[in-house]
Amino acid sequence: MEKTKRFQVSLKVIWGSSIALAVMASIPKLFDADSTPGDLIINSSITLLFSLFIWYYNIYSLPKFSANHANKSLFNWKLLLSVILGIVLMVILVIAHQELFQVSKMDAPIMFELRGVLINLIVYMFLHLLFQNYQTQQMGVELERTKAVNLGAQYELLKQQVNPHFLFNSLNTLKSMVDIQDPQSSDFILKLSDFYRFTLESRKMDLIPLREELQILDSYVYLLKARFEDGFVLENEIDPKQYDSAIPPFTLQLLIENCIKHNVVSLDKPLKIRLYTENEFLVVENKIQLKRGAVSTGVGLDNINQRFMHLIHKEIEIDKDETTFKVKIPLNYDYHNN
Question: Name one Pfam family in it (predicted).
Answer without folding.
Answer: His_kinase
